[in-house]
Amino acid sequence: xxxxxxxxxxxxxxxxxxxxxxxxxxxxxxxxxxxxxxxxxxxxxxxxxxxxxxxxxxxxxxxxxxxxxxxxxxxxxxxxxxxxxxxxxxxxxxxxxxxxxxxxxxxxxxxxxxxxxxxxxxxxxxxxxxxxxxxxxxxxxxxxxxxxxxxxxxxxxxxxxxxxxxxxxxxxxxxxxxxxxxxxxxxxxxxxxxxxxxxxxxxxxxxxxxxxxxxxxxxxxxxxxxxxxxxxxxxxxxxxxxxxxxxxxxxxxxxxxxxxxxxxxxxxxxxxxxxxxxxxxxxxxxxxxxxxxxxxxxxxxxxxxxxxxxxxxxxxxxxxxxxxxxxxxxxxxxxxxxxxxxxxxxxxxxxxxxxxxxxxxxxxxxxxxxxxxxxxxxxxxxxxxxxxxxxxxxxxxxxxxx
Length: 402
Ligand SMILES: [Mg+2]
Known about the structure:
The protein folds into 2 domains: 3-121, 2-Layer Sandwich (Enolase-like, domain 1), CATH 3.30.390; 123-345, Enolase-like C-terminal domain (TIM Barrel). 35% of the residues lie in helices and 16% in strands. It has 13 helices and 16 strands. It has helices at 55-69, 77-87, 95-117, 121-124, 142-150, 166-176, 194-204, 221-230, 243-252, 269-281, 295-307, 353-356, 390-396, and strands at residues 3-12, 17-18, 21-22, 33-41, 46-50, 132-138, 155-159, 181-185, 211-213, 235-237, 258-259, 285-286, 314-315, 328-329, 338-340, 350-351. Strands 6, 7, 8, 9, 10, 11, 12, 13 and 15 form a 9-stranded mixed beta sheet that branches. Strands 1-4-5 form a 3-stranded antiparallel beta sheet. Strand 4 and strand 5 (46-50) form a beta hairpin. The longest helix has 23 residues, at 95-117. It starts with a strand and ends in a 6-residue tail after the last helix. The structure holds magnesium ion. Residues 185, 187, 213-214, 239, 289, 291 line the site of magnesium ion. Magnesium ion binds at residues 185, 187, 213-214, 239, 289, 291.
């Protein structure tokens, strides 16, 4: 079998089409994009994959990498991954953008192998521990947390967007009771100092959290060590890193208790399994990031999570946009707080190209609202996002209402 071509299918996410175009309340349908690929072969079998990590840029990278793969036998997945990696060396450390491109292609190669052998990918990875994977959802209010519980979901994550709000976490913890896991995601803001993150963490301790995610910027590894040593809550991080070398310091230094590689940009299914194995050696569990994932990479995450012993939970944003269930077939549905691991050959998912075409990509970077405390404010106390004055920082550390 030989690879004949690699197609890219890029789309805007987040809104219903209006008059045949992709438009949301801001006229752009949000800033998220999903990038899907199809790797075609001379035997009629094709594989599907997905790459996150700035999808509009990843698209160009996939198209560039295609020239080192066309004509190759898709069976030799690890060899082809190394070929892509070496071909990209001149671009420097690739990060999640290069990781997204290699992920999309590698994922599709696994899909081809599974289809060619008539086996689900999990069965080619050593078999499975479980036939369904527990998921957790996101809640900003107690009401939303209760809705998730109504779906059988037993894990709720509360995000700090803009300012720390411990009262909100406490209200959600009260609403869900002791049987449901609650997590906090601080989104690793560059303005958060380790000292402040420790103060916040100590105020969260009594809420019995499953983990405290990205309390500071992800590259501040020494800061993570300080927080780990000072706060009695398991730490989680990893969504903004790619491949075994990107995740290695978090794992090797045991800076986190839960590692969160993104299945769409960590480097591919094999990289995810290697990361899981590195984590296993340090008694660290894995809860893959899915915040920016589309519906194909979610299938890949299920195959990975089915086959590793240290699978904690999978992040799930099922209800972000109805189109999630329409651009692929079949669509994943949360049942009793879990996703079922697919049993069909390959990844078990295909693209619905006609639907994808309805949502052409418009933009792929987020702009922060002006009035929520996140705004970059030239000429004010909040001007420098890295070195905030005490007053500017305090605005974002609105830890308690009283
Ligand atoms: Mg996060």
